[in-house]
Amino acid sequence: MILQKNTNTTMKNTQTITAVGMLVAGLAFAVAGFITPPPGEISDSVLWLFSQCLIYAGSIFGVGIYVDRRFSAFTKEFRRSGLNPENNTNEQPENERENEQDYEKTESTD
């Protein structure tokens, strides 16, 4: 478990570092494109490169935030449902047993 936690932390750190690095590189290319001759004019290729850097950084941050929120909502719902694997009980909740008994009654009367 410890190895898995460290791997997850390392992966998140790597993603954050690369995203910030891409933002810095994109900004540096945009500034370099602005100050090179002819001054004040940015080439289309520099703008394209800058936009790709923004897209990469946005996808890293956006997807990470989305996945973290969805996963936390899923685990919260899983724990609330009573199907926590830490309990190690194979008993069905009371309301599910009643539903099965009702289904068996209607099935036998048909």
Automatic annotation (TrEMBL):
Renumbered to this chain, the Basic and acidic residues biased-composition regions fall at 94-110
Q: Does the keyword Transmembrane apply?
A: yes
Q: Membrane-spanning regions, if any?
A: 16-35, 47-67
Q: Which UniProt keywords apply?
A: Membrane, Transmembrane, Transmembrane helix
Q: Does the keyword Transmembrane apply?
A: yes
What domain of life is recorded for the organism? Bacteria
User: Where is the region Disordered?
Assistant: 79-110
Protein name per the record: Uncharacterized protein
Look up and give the organism this protein is from: Pseudoprevotella muciniphila
